[in-house]
UniProtKB/TrEMBL annotation:
<comment type="similarity">
    <text>Belongs to the peptidase M14 family.</text>
</comment>
<comment type="function">
    <text>Involved in the digestion of the blood meal.</text>
</comment>
<feature type="domain" description="Peptidase M14">
    <location>
        <begin position="118"/>
        <end position="409"/>
    </location>
</feature>
<feature type="active site" description="Proton donor/acceptor">
    <location>
        <position position="375"/>
    </location>
</feature>
<protein>
    <submittedName>
        <fullName>Carboxypeptidase B-like</fullName>
    </submittedName>
</protein>
Length: 412
């Protein structure tokens, strides 16, 4: 066993704090129970007063992060309004510190540093893609499809057996910086496809896979070094940096569920594709019109959902029955490999309206037959701070999902 150098040279050192790493000591994750619509307004007000932030939830429950100094105030406000709650994480910083093994023993492999026992930095993920292209030149190639605001290359791996009749499937991860399980899962899928290609079903082998595991490299790195909960890219330095890349795609841009205020988490940018990270996706897909595009999948977390268009509003496309039926096959494939239950449905109806998402653009403009946003684990026990031990189980269920998508793409 070779001992790997630390994943992050600055990890856990005083240097981190000197660089201004945000600590979440004393912040608590609460699961609240919503049984009246008006209760959501109570939470929205607490958010606007900067006491909580909303992590996720559904019609009957909402996960909220409570600031240390606001615990008493929030407790009082919830009680007064009949909102029951349960403390799920007592100290978020402690959960963050325990999430990722800082140094791990790598098996005796050479050429790359990737594992699925820890969340890795962007350099490790890039190095892994380059390694695959060098090691399996007949099957894989790497391309840089664009550069982030801070000039990091956005890399894409193509996996293809070269058959001329192949349909094309797009997979991305890491649109949102803090959803670390997404790049980990996408690279897990890559690893399985490439290293066991011959044992994959014919439907997988006869697809041209275009896979970009980290679409938001600046945000991803920032979530490792400065702020574990960073979501956006790092566009526009200054008072309130960052655009929500999943509000920046050019279909019904700027509508419901996206914000014009740069200081919010869902700021949609100055215009459709104003950000280089989303423009890279658009340019690559539209520049490869020779590919027979059939399916588009974005991996996010958390909540365990299989979502399809539309996300911009509570309406569905004419062929929604096809998306629903493949969505259900995805959820049942996940169950049959021992995974948890995933909720299937149109994004706005099932979660909330949010305009400018990649899935809506894929369906509405690029005309992919199948477009999905898959929200991976968990259900709010750890939320974004999912311990690394869950990478492999989550990867296995996502692999089952993607195999279903390969079949649907082949038949489309
Ligand atoms: N949690 C995702 C987000 O907020 C959901 C996106 C679903 N798709 C959509 N077009 N709204 O970005
Ligand atoms: Zn997301």
């Amino acid at each position: 066993v070779a001992r790997a150098p630390p994943l992050d040279p600055a990890e856990g050192t005083a240097e981190d704090e000197a660089q201004g790493r945000i600590l979440y000591t004393g912040s608590q994750l609460w699961k609240t129970v919503i049984d009246k619509k008006a209760q959501i307004q109570v939470l929205a007000q607490l958010r606007d007063e900067h006491d909580i932030s909303m992590w996720g939830g559904n019609a009957t429950s909402m996960d909220v992060l409570v600031k240390p100094d606001s615990v008493d105030k929030v407790k009082e406000r919830l009680t007064k309004n009949g909102i029951r709650y349960e403390v799920v994480i007592e100290d978020l910083q402690k959960a963050i510190d325990e999430e990722n093994p800082s140094e791990i023993e790598l098996d005796d492999r050479q050429g790359h540093r990737m594992t699925w026992q820890a969340y890795h930095r962007y350099a490790d993920i890039q190095g892994y893609l380059d390694y695959l292209a060098t090691t399996y030149p007949d099957l894989c190639s790497v391309q840089t499809i664009g550069y982030s605001i801070q000039n990091k290359p956005i890399k894409l791996l193509k996996i293809s057996n070269g058959n001329p009749g192949n349909k094309a499937v797009w997979i991305d991860g890491g649109i949102h910086a803090r959803e670390w399980i997404s790049p980990a899962t996408v690279t897990f899928i890559i690893n399985q496809f490439v290293s066991n290609f011959e044992s994959e079903p014919a439907s997988v082998q006869n697809i041209d896979w275009y896979i970009a595991p980290v679409l938001n490299p600046d945000g991803y790195e920032y979530s490792h070094t400065r702020d574990r909960l960073w979501r956006k890219n790092l566009g526009r330095s200054g008072q309130c940096p960052g655009t929500d890349l999943n509000r920046n795609f050019g279909y019904r841009w700027g509508g419901r569920g996206s914000s014009k205020n740069p200081c919010t988490e869902t700021y949609g940018g100055t215009g459709p594709f104003s950000e280089p990270e989303t423009a890279a996706v658009k340019n690559f897909i539209q520049g490869n019109s020779g590919a027979n595009w059939k399916a588009y999948v974005s991996f996010h977390s958390y909540g365990q959902y299989v979502l399809y268009p539309w996300g911009y509003d509570r309406v569905v496309p004419p062929d929604y029955k096809d998306l629903e039926s493949v969505g259900r096959k995805i959820a049942s494939a996940i169950r049959s490999v021992g995974g948890p239950s995933y909720t299937v449905g149109p994004a706005a109806n099932t979660l909330y309206p949010a305009s400018g998402g990649s899935d809506d653009w894929a369906k509405g403009v690029a005309k992919f037959k199948y477009a999905y946003t898959i929200e991976l684990r968990d259900n709010g026990r750890y939320g974004f701070v999912l311990p690394a031990a869950y990478i492999q189980p989550t990867g296995k269920e996502a692999l089952a999902a993607v195999r279903v998508i390969a079949e649907a793409a082949a038949a489309a």
